[in-house]
Amino acid sequence: MHYPLPTTFKRLFILDTNVLMHDPTAIFRFxxxxxxxxxxxxxxxxxxxxxxxEIARNVRQLSRVLDELISTHSNLQNGIALPGTExxxxxxxxxxxxxxxxxxxxxxxLPGNKPDNSLLSTTSxxxxxxxxxxxxxxxxxxxxxxxxxxxxxxxxxxxxxKVLDDVDLLxxxxxxxxxxxxxxxxxxxxxxxxxxxxxYQLSSEAVTQWYPNQFLYTEDDSPLEARVIECRGPRAxxxxxxxxxxxKNNVWGITARNREQNFALxxxxxxxxxxxxxxxxxxxxxTLLALAAGLAQTLDQQRYREIIVxxxxxxxxxxxxxxxxxxxxxxxxxxxxxxxxxxxxNPTHGAGxxxxxxxxxxxxxxxxxxxLNFMRGRTFLNRYIILDEAQNLTAKQMKTFITRAGxxxxxxxxxxxxxxxxxxxxxxxxxLTYVVDRFNAKAWSHSGHITLxxxxxxxxxxxxxxxx
Length: 468
Fold this sequence. Notes:
Elements: E1 11-15, H1 17-22, E2 34-37, H2 39-47, H3 54-71, E3 80-81, E4 93-96, H4 105-109, H5 115-129, E5 134-138, H6 142-150, E6 155-156, E7 174-176, E8 188-190, E9 199-203, E10 215-217, E11 225-232, E12 235-240, H7 259-268, E13 275-280, H8 286-300, E14 306-311, H9 327-331, H10 336-345, H11 352-366, E15 367-369, E16 383-388, H12 395-402, E17 410-415, H13 431-442, E18 447-452, H14 459-467
Parallel strand pairs: 1-2, 1-5, 2-4, 5-6, 7-10, 13-17, 13-18, 14-15, 14-16, 16-17
Antiparallel strand pairs: 3-4, 8-9, 9-12, 10-11, 11-12
């Protein structure tokens, strides 16, 4: 890279290592601008390339991309023209550090010999040599950005992977209708796909704002609860929901305690829905509802061969180190929520010790605990899969997981985006947020989502959620 920069560039983005580890395609996200990779970043990438973690895979993917780009260019000092996209045909340029910068007093003022300090020194040198160019250090490391701003260096977070500007804009899966909405519509009763259910067809301007499998409700003397089955322009087909709050419609002894839980069970028990996403705070019943619906469809209806439960193994506190045993034994400590819910769903109260043991053996044979670390390359046929704590996965990990589904498989992703434990993930960049937004944007008729609002664990847990 020439020192200083060619005057044709008005903006230069220097990428930190964690940005490239988080998104190996980050160098292509700055179309029309220049991207710069210091040598210290390449050194850190080289140190992180070994292993089977998602970070190591991302680093290896980036290394292959960089090798392909460099192999077709003999003069790296002039930069590498990056391909444009359909939405932004302006090509960006990629530069590498090919020169040793003059001594910088800034590096001597920073304590310790750390890669972050070397990155700050390089950024400062480029910024001073190019006063007409806006030089920005892009990093996911909050502390590094703080140090950069203290030293007069422009720094920014990597937000290209942000799904939404505000998490409050995330699709909730339901919409309240005006009290007199149905009275003002011309409803046509049509045959339902399931005997005993009622379906209506209507035309309205409001229909253009609806999505397949979105829930509609009214709060009046005769409340309506329905689901959108099909949308075609201003015409829509809605189906009256089955009421799982009634004891006669219980699901493995569980009944819905509020409107959102009833919506969730209607999604979970519909064989036409292949993907269900459930969001909600602690105690809203996400895992319990998913497990009850899975047991009913696996053991009673024989719709699925078995239930597979998995989750991201991200600890809340200090890591307890390696765990002995098989894959399922290693995952058992992470599955406390599963065991707690199985105790609630175990219908053998009063059946004696033999009945309890027999039921536990049956459940153990039909519920398998699997690790996400070994999902790559697998295909699951006729399985009911529950992904717990899905908010801790990145968008790339969610894609890897969901694409494991084979014919006859249903995937249920549950999580709380307010409780993210993964480094560098936020509510707006979580893989769970990404999936909810993308499936809603495509308006796919075989997926559904609902955000659970009301806690039902206990009055203590509900009050703690509000005040703590």
